[in-house]
């Protein structure tokens, strides 16, 4: 039985972050400062724990919403003491937090180690100095490299977050950023396409016409290549796209940009389309009816949203019937039956061929 992961999110205010990044809504930051209440955190954790079944689960407390290591040290200790207590009692397995690269040093990491923190995620956004400057990030690519090395040296699990579509960025710079992150050897990565949020500097630039966000299709195409790069290098991409909330939605706080509530599925579905292109390019005779045996969790990605990949197969190759069946196999491969022959398809090999075709992978 696979282990399910449950995250108990604790949203801390941005009191640890003095920077006004171009994409960040400072009005909501001010509200979160005013509403911050450490006494309610235990109630929040207990409520989450009461809803999680006692089965084969992995539980984690995660501090989101601010630059944690920039918070006043006494508040950090107060927050960490709560999380550490639940971990010592065996009620959770891990503690996670996110912060800025320029707020990492030996003293801060020693404190986090003292309170049994497991995962530290850095908001990198880009490894291109001009993009960082255009986004008012207030840190450098060197800060990212130094912080990442320190985090790994101190024995923490390293997570890195990047954004696509920032002002002054482009496809080549985002591929460069992904490759730089790969070199830093993170265990996990998040990819966030830039959205124009209400009451940000980016909204002002968008309304002035000096910033044009990525279209949904552009964002998907870029994230396909980034996800393939990370997957090929065995780095777990745990999120693509902002999680929809009451406010993070079209016609709410999102003014413009490539927002979609199932953005990752669109990316994963497009990847399977690329796989099929590579696969069928090497098959001379394609039957009008094929069968696919695949891990059940990959069926929706293979089929594509609204059966888009099945429609594509019919229009591109004349395949009128695709029978997709769940098989108790790894996600690392799947089977296609064509002309009575069962082909085992290795996902990593298809990824390699795609990256070579795009010039994103150079074999030594």
3D architecture notes:
The protein has helices spanning 26-35, 41-51, 73-88, 106-114, 129-134, 141-153, 171-183, 201-208, 216-232, 263-281, 299-303, 308-317, 347-357, and strands at residues 4-11, 57-64, 94-99, 119-125, 157-164, 188-193, 196-197, 236-240, 254-256, 289-294, 321-326, 333-338, 341-346. The chain has a 7-stranded parallel β-sheet. The chain has a 4-stranded mixed β-sheet with strand order 11-10-12-13. The protein has a two-stranded antiparallel sheet with strand order 7-9. The two termini are 39 Å apart. It is of the alpha/beta class and 364 residues long. Helix 4 links the parallel strand 3 and strand 4 (119-125). It folds into 2 domains: 4-261, Aldolase class I (TIM Barrel); 269-357, Hypothetical Protein Ychn, Chain: A (3-Layer(aba) Sandwich). Helix 9 (216-232) crosses helix 10.
Question: Could you write a compact summary of the structure shown?
Answer:
The chain is α/β, with parallel strands linked by helices.
Strand coverage percent:
15-25%
The major pleated sheet works out as: 7 strands, parallel
Number of helices: 13
Q: Which CATH C-level class of the largest domain is it?
A: Alpha Beta
User: What sort of overall outline do the alpha carbons produce when their principal axes are compared?
Assistant: globular
Taken together, the total number of domains comes to 2
Roughly how many Å is the radius of gyration? Answer: 22 Å
According to CATH, the fold-level topology of the largest domain is TIM Barrel
CATH architecture field of the largest domain: Alpha-Beta Barrel
N-to-C order of helices and strands: EHHEHEHEHHEHEEHHEEHEHHEEEH
